[in-house]
Amino acid sequence: MTISNALASWALEFRWSSVPSNVKTIIKEHCADGIGNAIGGSKSAVAQAALATIVQSGHSDKATLWNSSLRSSVPSAAFYNAILIHALDFDDTHAGGLVHATAPTLPVAWALGESLNASGDEVIAAYTVGLEVISRLGAASPHGFHARGLHATQVCGSIACALVSAKLMKLSLEQSVHAMGIAGSFAGGLLEFLNTGSSTKQIHPGIAAQAGINAATLAAHGATGPGSVLEGEYGIYRTLSNRSVDLDSITRDLGRVWQSGLITIKPYPACQLSHVTLDAARAAWAQAQANGCRSSDISSITAKVHRDSLNIICEPFTSKISPKTAYDAKFSLPWSVSVLLIDGEIGILSFSEESILRSEVTALASKFSYTPSEDHGAAAAASGEVVISTYDGH
Length: 394
Hints:
This protein is mostly helical. 50% of the residues lie in helices and 7% in strands. A hairpin with a 6-residue loop joins β1 and β2 (71-72).
């Protein structure tokens, strides 16, 4: 039996009633968080671009475009709503898999559920399948896709969304496995945006959502895909991951140990990899402020950062000090830490086109330095360490 076959067998039989009550509460919280993020992201430039693209492609009334009076086709609605959730980079993350779990999966379950008149239990069960599968696929090769220059959310999300779709469309086991195999050929999501500050990462969950629905629809009409899309010689791990993979972990304790419970809601609208350092900086600065220190007193900021995080949030250093765009600033640890120390908090308004022009933030960011930590666990779950020094020697 292939891994895809095992996942599909579980997913098609899975029922919402089998989820422990404490995990149900967590999943509902993530659903609400996703909707809240979508409302917040609906005014973003990338959301407006996505909306214009959908409108241009033709009219359909199958599913709702969130936070609007408009409707569209199921694939287009899922594409758009997924982009809304991820637009602010404030959406939930599974640290071990470094995937945004809700952004691609919830819109698929919602749009298909709406169009098929599915029950609430059926929709949230499909969403839960998506959360479990995307998290397990990412965690099987920690940072592996990112190390290859790919966004794990799109790679793993495409396949997870195919299974979400297959469940709601009531495909057979064989068709569901084909859908996952087809979705593997939609896997991608380049991280080159890190060098330009462009908006492509915001679109990746939308691509995954749309790909999953299209893959399941293709399978429903007779198209086939490789059942070995995960573990095969040319499957996603051997071709797209640059790290070792624990294939057994994908199905280990499936339905007994809930990865959904390990997905976290973000406290900051910035790259998840920066959060451990931001937490450490907040704690260190609170102590310094208690001794009367102000941000203008800071002479240096030194942080220990997980090696896997360096090329995403710390390098190239000169670019990170002066972000090219507001979105680029979300992936700059020096800039994010400096905003936190000056303003005392980080929120959505911290990352605007006006805010990146703040000379005092750039000046403080230039005092930031880092060394690689010796932490060998998942980068997003690593410990943070920050030392803040002042001109008077503290």
